[in-house]
Amino acid sequence: MQKADITTRAVAGFIDLLLVIGMARLPDVLGFLVVIGYILVRDGLFAQQSVGKKVIGLRVALTDDPGKTVSFRESIIRNVPLAVAYLLFLVPYAGWLLAPLALTVEALTAMGDERGMRIGDLLARTYTVQANAAAAVPEGPAADAGMSDTTR
Questions:
Q1: Per-domain residue ranges for the chain?
Q2: Torsion angle, CA of 70/57/40/17, rounded to 10 degrees?
Q3: For residues 28 and 65, what is the distance between their CA atoms, to the nearest angstrom?
Q4: Which helix (H) or strand (E) holds 128?
């Protein structure tokens, strides 16, 4: 499976951020609950895709079994650090400094990992891949072995 590059993931995250900003405008507690709920379960929606991932063409896969469907459990575990950053942002002054710091740590972790796994991914044992990677035709000697001489 081909891991998703950090730029593509950032664009998908930006789309999700725009959605979260819109949902946060709902009245009081309702907006808070909808935003926290979406942040936590977003990667369990739409066949392992948040709205941003669906638009960009990414999905979440399990490290142990990339073909298996990611459940809401893994989505919640994976997105707890992002929900904590959102909660921190709601705290005046200190939270406005700590929330971006938490998101920066997540991004730096993803950039430093060979699979692009951030802290939430390490906790949930997931990573982000191209959505069409599962359907890709295998290449290399194993793929060539299955071809007959007439099809080459």
A1: 6-145
A2: 170
A3: 40
A4: strand 126-130
> Cβ–Cβ contacts within 10 Å for residue 15, how many?
17
Alpha-carbon span 126 to 63, nearest angstrom: 5
Write the DSSP symbol of residue 135.
Answer: G
Candidates 1, 147, 145, 146; CA nearest to 67 is: 1
Which helix (DSSP H) or strand (DSSP E) does residue 67 occupy? none
pTM over 0.85: no
Q: How does pLDDT run across 75-117, given as a tens digit for each residue?
A: 999 999 999 999 999 999 999 999 999 999 999 998 988 888 9
CA atoms of 150 and 23, how far apart (whole Å): 57
To which residue do tokens 């990677």 refer? 133
CA distance 86 to 109: 18
Q: CA angle, corner 2, sides to 73 and 71, nearest 5?
A: 10
Going by C-alpha positions, the residue among 4, 35, 6, 30 that lies closest to residue 18 is 35
Question: Hey, is 36 helix, strand or coil?
Answer: helix
